[in-house]
Amino acid sequence: MEPVNIIGAGLAGSEAAWQAARSGVPVILHEMRPAVGTFAHKTGDCAEMVCSNSFRSDDDVMNAVGQLHWEMRTADGLIMSMADKHRLPAGGALAVDREAFSQAVTEALQAEPLIEIRTGEIDDLPTEGSWIVATGPLTSDRLAGSIRAVTGTEALAFFDAIAPIVHADTIDMGVAWEQSRYDKGETEAERRAYINCPMNRDEYEAFIDALLAADKTEFREGETAGYFDGCLPIEVMAERGRETLRHGPMKPVGLTNAHKPEEKAYAVVQLRRDNALGTLYNIVGFQTKMKYGAQTEVFRMIPGLQDASFARLGGIHRNSFLNSPTLLDDRMRLRKRPNLRFAGQVTGVEGYVESAAMGLLAGRMAAAQARGDDLGPPPFTTAMGALVNHITGGAEAKTFQPMNVNFGLFPPLEEMRSGRKGRKDRYPAYTQRAKDDFRAWLATQ
């Protein structure tokens, strides 16, 4: 049987390889790391998480991301299986020990007899064979050039920013306290999953002033890009208005200062555990393009972080993606070269889970074709189906931008078109319909 070749062993490529192999089809997984590195990656492991350690909400009743988690688990997804094994307390979110997680994914792929992992860069799109391109936002320049040559169009681009990580033992817990927003979580550990640093109004205003005045990373000559709203650098948010941050990642709602319960914070900076030992915490929503020296000065203005030591400072990188509505069919194949499928962030989905989900579908579709079958996408009443529909035709090509999964991508329920029912009724109805339809789709395979 002809193997499925996959370029890129990130979350999408790893999931695609797992799904194809579990369908009985041999896989060759090509990964350029560690032979060819990137500034953002630190290891040669598969499914390395660069920007954050969170897969976001795990609520599969009221949240579209949680529904996507459910679909991936139901489809025997490797990424969700390893995430569950290496999860950390994070309230209602699914966060993982990122190093243990990526090592576990790597070991699972290495142990699968139908998967061969080859190290080395693929710098040109192959003309023959079955291939899945899952190179992510850091596609190498040479391969990106080949993609542009084949598609006949420039890939779109935006800049994605990385949040800093703090050593836990340098956080002043006499100022900060542990609490998840609204005490969310089923266990005490989940209800205390975040470290919170409060600011009064004067501290917040001084912080905004410093943030706006700080030295920023400059784009290289000739580079232009827009930012994805779900991953804006904090200084860009601050430029949109002085109150933007306290209504975004620094919102104080749902939190009570354990040291001064009678005082309401004007703004709160949250940190989320980044490893199982609890020795590292990332600053939630604090993606930044500030230069390193400026970051340490500005972030140490945060009460509780005045003596903080940083395991990693923030960064910024170019993130490339296709104008998929004009280029891909609903089997995620390049219309001009149907031997090529694309998966992951390069297709224009945003987020770890969304990227892995597109890998899951691409892997199953490629495996079906290798067996002489044809597998269509799930109904777009499901989370996966809604994403595929969006990137392969549901979105407006002229204004196409990366998209997280959300209920706005789901078709409305007929009985709720009147708008008289609120979210508490609509969201469970969306997710129940999605579960029923996804199970039916799986049963056809």
UniProtKB/TrEMBL annotation:
SUPFAM superfamilies: FAD/NAD(P)-binding domain. It catalyses: uridine(54) in tRNA + (6R)-5,10-methylene-5,6,7,8-tetrahydrofolate + NADH + H(+) = 5-methyluridine(54) in tRNA + (6S)-5,6,7,8-tetrahydrofolate + NAD(+); uridine(54) in tRNA + (6R)-5,10-methylene-5,6,7,8-tetrahydrofolate + NADPH + H(+) = 5-methyluridine(54) in tRNA + (6S)-5,6,7,8-tetrahydrofolate + NADP(+). It is found in: Cytoplasm. It is an enzyme of class 2 (transferase). One of its GO terms (biological process) is tRNA wobble uridine modification. Keywords: Cytoplasm, FAD, Flavoprotein, Methyltransferase, NAD, NADP, Transferase, tRNA processing. It comes from the Bacteria. Residues 4-373 form the MnmG N-terminal domain. GO terms for molecular function: flavin adenine dinucleotide binding; tRNA (uracil(54)-C5)-methyltransferase activity, 5,10-methylenetetrahydrofolate-dependent. Pfam families: GIDA (PF01134). FAD binds at G8, A9, G10, L11, A12, G13. NAD-binding protein involved in the addition of a carboxymethylaminomethyl (cmnm) group at the wobble position (U34) of certain tRNAs, forming tRNA-cmnm(5)s(2)U34. Belongs to the MnmG family. TrmFO subfamily. This is Methylenetetrahydrofolate--tRNA-(uracil-5-)-methyltransferase TrmFO. It comes from Paracoccus saliphilus. The gene is trmFO.
